[in-house]
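Thread: Newbie trying to understand structure tokens

Hi all, I'm a second-year student working on a class project, and my supervisor (Dr. K.) asked me to get a predicted structure for one chain before our next meeting. I've only ever worked with sequences, so writing a 3D structure as a token string is new to me. If someone could post the tokens and maybe explain what I'm looking at, I'd be very grateful. Here's the chain:
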Amino acid sequence: MVRRLQDALRDDAEVRAAIDAASRQLNASGRAIQVWDGDWLQNGAEAGKGLAGVRQAIAMEIAFAPADCRREPMRGLVLLTMGDDQDASRVALGTSAWRWSDLLERD
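---
Reply by user tm_fold:
Sure, no problem. This is what the structure looks like when written as tokens:
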């Protein structure tokens, strides 16, 4: 699931641009931006939580993943990188114990 999600985010130019802009704005300097820790986090001066476009892209990829993937038990943080080079922007998400389906917003 990590590879699937990372590949999807890397393939989306708008998502990559949003993550890169947030990294610059927050002066992340190679550190990951945490976007979810049991709740979507608000970064910097953005209007919504979790970098709205990034949150939506993550939710869509998880929603259409196989059920077994969505239910997979996870522990700790997951790091997603937006490129293979050392200076690529990074996004972190996770908590002590969670499942991918926890990232889907519930009505």
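A couple of things are worth pointing out once you decode it. Helices lie at 2-11, 13-25, 52-63, 67-70. The radius of gyration is 13 Å. Feel free to ask follow-ups in this thread.
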